[in-house]
Fold these 3 entries.
Entry 1:
Amino acid sequence: MNRNYARGARAEYLAIGRLHEAGYPTTFRSAGSHGVFDVFGFNRRMGLAVQVKTGALSKSQLAAAVAQIEDAVMPKGMKRALWHHLGRGAWVEYVVG
């Protein structure tokens, strides 16, 4: 298995755990879809679409990821975010749009 893929998949599963803890009981991972978002969480009131990043991100990479998220067409009641997994349990969360 590709090392970068494995690292990203692990971060996505950790993100799913964070979604559960944040009150989103229904979650799924869009593995292999090549879409904008990696994981989704839903509760009775709303949904959250998350792009998960790992490793070092330059300012230009971050700006490109945020622009891609902002351009995504979202249904009503759906929020979007970028979560950057820094490793060892550390995360930076960006709410987009």
Note: The CA atoms of residues 57 and 84 lie 9 Å apart.
Entry 2:
Amino acid sequence: MPAKPRRQPHSPRSAGAGAPLLNLGPTSSKWLAAVGIHDRRDLEAVGVINAYNLCKAHGYNVSLNLLWALQAALMDIPWTQLPADIKDQLRQRLEQS
């Protein structure tokens, strides 16, 4: 059986307008587009908590993983590397929103 192709190491993406967001698959990207978030600049302007709440308000089946992915995208890290203390802060902010 042939070996699986190796994934390319993570490289930070440009923070410019239209820059794609790390961590987001096609479904999450469609949800964000439906609420007016198309790129990194849009996400920065709206904020991750508001973006999450907008998706939820539109009836999408969001989970905390979306919130982690959004924050990690702004930090240019894989969502699985988002530190626990940041997750805790995001949970608190979400509860207060």
Note: The two ends are 51 Å apart (CA to CA).
Entry 3:
Amino acid sequence: MRSVLVYAPVLTGRRIPHVTNPKLNDKQRKFLRGLAHDLSVVVQTGAAGLTEAVLGEIDVALTAHELIKVRFVAAERGDRDAMIEHACDRLDALLIQ
């Protein structure tokens, strides 16, 4: 089980399309980690893994909050990392931590 920070830029209540993986420097990442320190987990994957419903909930949460904590549950580290990468790619989001 691993909680990660996911960030997707939002402008006037709408996700910015195709801002795929803008490069963030270490200072920017540190700032975002500081903002997220007190955040609670917003979405958690279940036994079914990363389903369309979970991706939809992550998308809604990113649109509303821009920076969220997601808990990915998987038995193997490789499976969990694959889920994280798939979610970020699919939602045009950045993994912060």
Note: The chain is about 40% helix and 25% strand.
